[in-house]
Amino acid sequence: MTEQPTEGEPIRTGIVGLGKMGISHFAIVNAHPDLELVAVADTNSFLTSAIKRYTKVEVYKDFKRMINEAKLDAVLIATPTRFHFEVARYALERGINVFVEKPFTLTLEEGRALVDLAKQKGVVNQVGFHNHFVGTFAEVRRLVNAQAIGEVYHVTGEAYGQVVTKPKTSTWRSKKSEGGGCLHDYASHVVDLMNWVVGPPVKVLGAHLNSIFSEGVDDAVHAVFEYKNGMSGQLTTNWSDTTYRKMTTRISINGKKGKIIADRQEVRVFLMPGCEVDGYGEGWSIKYITDLQKPVWFYMRGEEYSTQIDTFAHNIKSRNTEGENTFASAYATDEVLDMIQKADRARS
Amino acid sequence: MDRILFGDNQFFGVNHMSEEKARAQSMKFKDTAAIMKVIDVAYSEGIKTFMCTTHDRIGEVTDIVRDNPDRYNNFTFYPGMPYAHKYANAVGELGIMGTLKKFAPGSIISTVIRGAMAGITQDAYELMKMLVDAEMQRFQGTRTPVVFLQNVVTDLLLGFNMREMFRAFHDYVQQKYEAEAGFFSMNMPMLVDVLHGEGIENPIVCSNINKIGFRMCGGIEKYIDTLKTKQFRPIAMSVYASGAIPPEEAIKWVCELPKLEAIVFGASSRRNIVGTRDLVEKYWRFDN
After folding, report:
1. Which of A61, A97, B159, B239 has the most Cβ atoms closer than 10 angstroms to its Cβ?
2. Are A245 and B95 inside 8 Å of each other by CB?
3. For residue B125, what pLDDT is reported?
4. Which residue of A lies nearest to B16 if distances are taken between CA atoms?
5. Measured between beta carbons, which residues in chain B are less than 8 angstroms from residue A28?
6. Helices marked H in chain A — which ranges?
7. Which helix (H) or strand (E) holds A73?
8. Chain A (136-175) residues lying within 8 Å, Cβ to Cβ, of chain B
9. Portion 259-278 of A in contact with B at CB < 8 A
10. Which of A32, A165, A171 is most worth mutating to test chain B (most B CB atoms within 10 A of its CB)?
11. pLDDT of res. A305
């Protein structure tokens, strides 16, 4: 293990992959008082030239060179999913704290290896499932854990949006081998959220992966889950739904004493007569994101993107390797995605 | 600058508090005629400035305003660009280079892609100019005294610390469109300092300013301190925090802050338009 940054010293940070997420991480890391963005690696010379010209950040084509030369304390990996394993392993082997975008890895073997390696090296490890940092979803988890709606018997997770709306697209997101498809993109977020709130299912009873416009990848994923103690779950995700302006995620939970429906904006809670939990009385109550989201030091497209990086930085400083969204928790999500794929194959 | 500006979020299914409400609104405003009806109400109630995104459908609004000069002789647009979701969706579908190719066709991009990197600084400026021109096309022949950079782009540039681009945008809209530059941001105190550093001495900055500190990054105290001590022309948006603050309380609080130039708000009914206008008139104490 390399030396970890000491108190007060900035955390030397690098980013691998400057796509949509990498660019967003760049801005957030660069604006964070405890992180110092020192290097980025990407093969796209248009972007790296611009960065070289406009900023003081070192630019590399080869991530290995960056990791070897830039004396990093932390690395953020925002490459296509296929490369997550290779880059993360390389960084972990050198004792570097790793944040990797979601989904975690494309195979369970790779995921398991990274979970073990991170543990062995004792470094901070985090995956970009940012819903954990959305105030409304955190409130849902709090309520469920507090038994606000009693014993939960059903959970529904949904996500809709318009990523692929016509037959031909040209990015890695349309290639299964690179980690494209609605399952790894939209559905992974929802499965992770469901896992976070009610725990992982034990079984996927059935699944249907539908290619609406794409060839080779799925545009919609539907699945039915079974949990221990007989609880059921349903997953509905579709990234070819043009009626949604942007990605919209919703989770609904039925319990014996009430029901919770939440999205990024609001939490609606129904409690049966006689039930009451701090701030929520019987009947319907609504809480809005304006009450539930804590402010951030720098805002770029949503508080959750800032908060997850802040959490990563905080965990590095406090040497907390068991924080929010660890590799192990993302691995549990990958296990469900794997079961969904198997259930779909069994069907066809 | 008018003290009350009319916003457009309500027309395009943007509601920071409720997705259901956003959906209902986007159904209601399916036709541009429905949008025009509300704009006409605001206009007839004395609200002459429409602060809008460069959403494709705004083009239909500009057409109507341009084609009816007598009716809309005082109508002013404050365009804010780019309409980010147009680009964000394209990035998901086409990748970053594909998106640039789609929205800024022409020699610059192909040069860039071919790898002629020598003049990358120049190229980035040229690219910015082309994107601004593309977004401004639909506003030709209308009055656009202030042209805004949307917060996603402002805050991205801020995060990247690409400060020169603010100056370049400022100078370009001035030179080409005889307009002042405005900046939307979710990080107002940080931005104001950066703009001053770039020699933009009295910048127009539109940011969330509301009593509960919703999406006021850096904290409400920092915002108030910036309002008190820095030279700039602030426009308050999200004054109701998407409805979390009762109207009168919200407007009274905002109007008690120093320096405000204008308040932008969105509404879909005459009642709400008139309600906000009357509250602003009641509590406004800035002399401009």
Report:
1. A97
2. no
3. 81
4. A265
5. 159
6. 20-31, 45-54, 63-69, 84-93, 108-121, 135-145, 188-198, 289-292, 303-317, 327-347
7. none
8. 162-165, 169-173
9. 263-266
10. A171
11. 96
Q: Whose CA is closest to A242, among A221, A213, A270?
A: A213
Q: Do A290 and B14 make contact, defined as CB atoms within 8 angstroms?
A: no
The pLDDT value recorded for residue A169 is 63
pLDDT for the residue numbered B115: 45
Which A-chain residues 66-105 have CB contacts (< 8 A) with chain B?
Answer: none
Does the beta carbon of B124 lie under 8 angstroms from any beta carbon of chain A? yes
Digit-coded pLDDT (tens) for A306-346: 999 999 999 999 999 999 999 999 999 999 999 999 999 99
pLDDT reading at B124 higher than 80: no
| Domains in chain A: ranges and CATH | 11-131+303-317 (3.40.50.720), 133-296+334-347 (3.30.360.10)
Half-sphere exposure of B118 (CA within 13 A, CB side): 1
Please check whether residue B244 touches A, CB under 8 A. Answer: yes
| pLDDT at position B1 over 50 | yes
Interface test with B, best of A54, A185, A263 (most B CBs within 10 A): A54
Domain residue spans of chain B: 4-83+144-283
Largest CA distance in chain B: 59
Element holding A35 (H helix, E strand):
strand A35-41
User: Looking at CA atoms only, how far is residue B157 from chain A in angstroms?
Assistant: 8
Using H for helix, E for strand and C for coil, what is the string for chain B? CCCEEECCHHHHCCCCCCHHHHHHHHHHCCCHHHHHHHHHHHHHCCCCEEEEECCCCHHHHHHHHHHCCCCCCCCEEEEEECCHHHHHHHHHHHHHHHHHHHHCCCHHHHHHHHCCCCCHHHHHHHHHHHHHHHHHHHHCCCECCEEEECHHHHHHHHHHCCCHHHHHHHHHHHHHHCCEEEEECCCHHHHHHHHHHCCCCCCEEEEECCCCCCCCCCCHHHHHHHHHHCCCEEEEECCCHHHCCCHHHHHHHHHCCCCCCEEEECCCCHHHHHHHHHHHHHHCCCCC
pLDDT, one tens digit per residue, over A161-210 is 988 888 876 677 777 777 789 999 999 999 999 999 999 999 999 999 99
Q: Which of B13, B152, B161 sits opposite A301 (nearest CB)?
A: B152
The verdict on B15 touching A (C-beta cutoff 8 Å) is yes
Q: Which of A47-56, A236-245, B240-249, B258-267 has the lowest mean pLDDT?
A: A47-56
**Chain B CA closest to residue A167:** B93
CATH architecture of B4-83+144-283: Alpha-Beta Barrel (3.20)
Q: How many CB atoms lie within 10 A of CB A282?
A: 14
- Locus of tokens 């943007």: B14
What pLDDT does A5 receive?
61
| B12 → chain A, closest CA residue | A245
ipTM: 0.87
Find residue A243's DSSP bridge partners.
Answer: none
Chain B residues whose beta carbon lies within 8 Å of the beta carbon of residue A169? 93-94
Interface check A242 vs B, CB under 8 A: no
